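Supplementary notes for students who missed Thursday's class. We covered one full example, reproduced here. Read the sequence, then the structure, then the short commentary at the end.
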Amino acid sequence: MKRYVLKRFVYMIITLYLIATATFFLMHLVPGDPFALPRETPAEVRAKLNQKYGLDQPVLKQYLIYMKNLLHGDFGISMKYKGQSVLGKVTKGIPNSAIIGFGGILIGCLIGIIFGIYAALNNGKTFDYLIIILAIVGVSVPNFVFASLLQRVFGVQLRILPVTGWGGLKYAILPIAAASMQNIAYYARMLRSSMLDVLNQDYIYTARSKGLGESEVIRKHALRNSILPLVTSLGPMCAGALTGNFVIERIFNIPGIGTALIVAIQNTDYTMIMGLTVIFSFITVFMYFVVDILYGFVDPRIRVAK
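Structure (token representation):
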């Protein structure tokens, strides 16, 4: 198991290095000048700003400095907001994004698993067809549509929840509900398909033939093996919990890191874009690393396979 974990860790470090390198050189290929907007900056001022941020140095030297700073956890200072560091922006925004993202995953996972189990156990019945319709609608409709509908119903018509803003539990209810819709559909469809496949395996018939009760067969044999695809999806899901809800953050005016990336792109803020991209990539790769380890515990065949 130690060798398995070490191997995955080395892969994670290599992946992050390649992403950081590609991000740096791609940003230097993007046309535009971060100091030219919102108004034309005098040439003297732009020269001093380029010198301050090291943009007057050769690209290779800038790259070496950038990688050295990354090793020390320094993601740079924003080129648009005076004295505001990339890491400080992330530190302020990541708790808000985490509440929305992980809240949506938690609710989506719980409700989706329940729906998926009951749909599989009632295969071909009315409830099963309802779950299939729910899954199709949930996956097909974008989350910003659900967000707008929730705002319309609960914020405008019923007036029981705030439409936008951030400041307490009541402000998080609608964003979390909007973020959980697609997760409910995704997990329900996935667990239904996985459990139907597991229920037809020979070891399930063997367990039943030994006299085990149906609830025990489902709980100890069918559910554990059906949950493996869900564990696999937790990597991108957890990464998306922090980085993938920028549309919802924008609609509900939530100061998260997704919103910070959109503003940085609009402002051509090189250091903020590169820093946030590397941080987002680290979160994504780290989540895949954690899932690989969990997969090794859930299914021992994975860590001993050649």
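Commentary. Residues 211 and 258 are 53 Å apart (CA to CA). DSSP finds 14 helices and no strands in the chain. If anything here is unclear, bring it to office hours.
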